[in-house]
Amino acid sequence: MQIDTTFPVMVTGATGYVAGWIVKGLLDAGLTVHAPVRNPQNLGKVQHLLKMAENSPGKLKLFKADLLDEGSYAEAMQGCATVFHTASPFTVNVKDPQTQLIDPAVKGTRNVLAEASRTDSVKRVVLTSSCAAIYTDAIDCAAAPNGTLTEDIWNTTASLDYQPYSYSKLLAEKAAWEVANDQSQWDLVVVNPSLVIGPATNQAPTSESFNIVRQIGDGTMKAGAPRAGIGLVDVRDLAQAHIAAAFTPEAEGRHIISAHNSNLLEMGLALQPKYGDHYPLPKKALPKWLVWLVGPLSGIPRKFVSNNVNVEWRADNSKGKRTLGVTYRPLRESMEDMFAQMVDNGVFDKA
Question: Which of 11, 164, 235, 280 is most buried by a 10 A CB count?
C-alpha cells in the first residue's frame, strides 16, 4: 500500500466513532484531511480532531457541510483525490425510520457521490456500508451458501417496519453502486463492517455499540446475556481497512470487515477476567424461552429473538484479509479497551 500524500482527502462524518480513527490514521500518515462537519465552531464536537492534528505530521481543515444539503460538500471536496463517506446515523430506537434513518443514509450518500462526480480531482470513493446491507438476522446466515455470509449476498429480509437500520444501510449501498456505475471518473470501494467495538477518539461517542456495552456492564444483563449471534470488529482495525481500501490500487467491490463470529454473552465473558470482580457482568446465557417471553418488555421484538438468540452468526472475512491486508486484534483486547474508556468516562457505578 503506497499512501500518496500529495492530494488532500475528505472524510464525511469526521466527528463519528469510526471516522475518528480513520482521520487519526490519515493524519499520522502525513495527509491533509478535509473534514466537513455541521458546525466547525462547535469545539465540543471537533476539539479531539484538532488535538489529533496538533500531534501528527498531517494537517486538518474543517469545513461546514450538511448531509442533506445538496452541494454543501463542494468546498470541502475541492482538490481531494480520495473521499471517505462514513456519515450515516446508527441508532436502533427511532420513531420515524424514514426521516431518521433512510433519508439521511440514502440522500446523504447520493449527495456526496454526486459531488464526487462534479469534482475532477476525485479518483476513489471509500464507502462505509455495513454487514447490515448483507443480512438482517443471524438466521439469514443459515440461508447463505455453506451457512456463511459473503460479499455476494444482499439483504432481502429488512424493511421499513422490521430492522429499519439494516434497511437504510442496504438502500444507501445500492444507491452508491448505482451512482458509481453511471460514471467512470472515480471508482468505488465498499467496506462492510459487523458490529464495531473498541475505544472512541472522543469522550462522548453516540454509536449504538456503546449502548450495548453499557447494558453489559451496568447490571442490565446481570442475570445473564442472550447468546444473540453477532459479528464484531475493533474500530481501530476497521479504520486501517478503510485506509487500505483507499490506497490499495487493486481494491474493488465490497469487503466484509469482521474479526469475530460471536454473541452478546461472549462480549460479556471477554470482560470477566479483568472486570468481573467489580462490575455486574453477565456470567451465563439467558434461556431463549425467557428472552422470548420478556423481550417485548425491553423493546426487543419476538421475531428478533427467534431469529437471533442461540443462532450462530458466520461471515467470511477472507477477502478483506487478502486484498486489504487486514489483521484483527483479540476480542478481549477490544472489549477491555472500550470498557476501560467507559469506566474513565463515568458510565458505570461500581458494584
Answer: 11
**Does 90 have pLDDT greater than 80?**
no
List the one residue out of 231, 216, 215 whose CA is nearest residue 320. 231
CA 31/CA 9 separation, integer angstroms: 7
Structural contact between residues 306 and 227, judged by C-beta atoms closer than 8 angstroms = no
Distance CA 23, CA 34 (A): 9
Residue 107 among the catalytic residues: no
C-alpha span between 291 and 93 (Å, rounded): 19
> What are the tens digits of pLDDT across the range 141-184?
999 999 999 999 999 999 999 999 999 999 999 999 999 999 99
* Active-site residue, from 24, 169, 288, 319: 169
pTM: 0.95
Please report the pLDDT score of residue 205 as a whole number: 83
